[in-house]
Amino acid sequence: MSQQKSTTRSCKQSVPPSRSPSPPNLPPQRAWVLQERLLSPRTLHFSRTDIFFECSQTITTETFPTGLPSYCLSHAKSTILQTWPATVEEYTSRNLTFPSDKLTSISGLARLHQTSNPYLAGLWGGPALLRQLAWHCTLTTPRLVETTPGCAPRARISTETPTWSWASLHAQVKFIEFDSREEETVEEKARVLDAGTVLASGDPMGPLKGGWVKILAPVNIISVTSDGVFLGGRRLEEDVMEVKLDGITELTGEFYLLSLCRRNVVDYSADRENGDINSYSIYLVLRPEGREGYYQRCELAVAEHFHIPENRREENGEGVGCVEFRGRKEGHVVYLV
């Protein structure tokens, strides 16, 4: 029987026995170290007051020999590896000496999550790809700023990695959580027709030379000025649409809203019997790439209690450049690159 290898690393975090412990973070907050930790079957963490034993199922200590309480496991291996978005969120919170290694240094974890669907620039193809496009950058990434001199937060890493991938940015990202509540329904407004990447080497999980997502969705023109966001000449109030910035520059000019989906969540806080339906529309904010029907992603927008009427001529996007226009309801066939 082959013997599996374990890793042992010291931890500076102090966890007094009298306080509720939390899973130890390794001293160097490095992306490569995270991969080593998650791929190892067993790990020992040493703190000043306790020893933590971590495996794929749980974390135990001398104080909690049967396992830490569930509320302490947000950064545990089992939690991080539960879903691919959770893995990416933890991974992007850590630093890389060379941000261009973003896809390479998570390739081992990607193989751990391997499915029958193709791996596309840090996302998984197939039916789940559409919802994986709904990621956004966190407002601040101090760890990245402090440990990577010369690389601005939320800066575009490379023109080779497609803009619809989180790996194209030097930033910590979060994914929109779908189906996180029993009272939630999701209406998908877009449909992925095709997707692919151009490999820089023979490794499908390594660096890229490009990629595309061919998508069918309603696309509408918006104007962003110092006075606000305008759609069809109508100003959208700030409390209607929240734009989550990906870039390092202010968003101004003419852009395009691609409708991804709408979340309907029932809130029983006011009416415990029937509940109130809160509707959230999720859009990608795009800019033209140069070729007709080709766009680059630049932001994510979330609008509460708002959607674009399909029967409004000035708002149905008939003038939007696309590969094919299939009517007001289905929308436009465009390429994201």
Summary?
The chain has 337 residues and is mainly β. It has six helices and 22 strands. The radius of gyration is 22 Å and the shape is globular.
Percent helix: 10-25%
* Backbone structural class: mainly beta
Distance between the amino and carboxyl termini: 48 Å
Order of helices and strands: EHEEEHHHEEHEHEEEEEEEEEEEEEEE
What portion of residues belong to β-strands? 35-45%
| Rg, nearest Å | 22 Å
Globally, the shape reads: globular
| Average of per-residue pLDDT values | 78
Poorly predicted runs are 1-28, 141-151, 311-315
> How can the largest sheet be summarized?
12 strands, mixed
Q: How many β-strands, per DSSP?
A: 22
Enumerate how many helices there are, as a single number. Answer: 6
Explain what this protein looks like in three dimensions:
The chain has helices at 31-39, 77-80, 84-92, 107-112, 129-132, 142-147, and strands at residues 7-10, 42-46, 51-55, 59-61, 119-120, 123-124, 135-137, 155-156, 169-170, 173-175, 184-188, 191-199, 208-217, 219-225, 228-231, 234-236, 241-245, 253-267, 276-288, 294-304, 324-325, 332-336. It is mainly beta. Among the domains are: 1-82, no CATH class; 185-336, no CATH class. Strands 11, 12, 13, 14, 15, 16, 17, 18, 19, 20, 21 and 22 form a twelve-stranded mixed beta sheet that branches. Strand 2 and strand 3 (51-55) form a beta hairpin. It is globular and about 65 Å long.
Descriptive key words:
337 residues, mainly beta, twelve-stranded mixed β-sheet, 6 helices, disordered N terminus
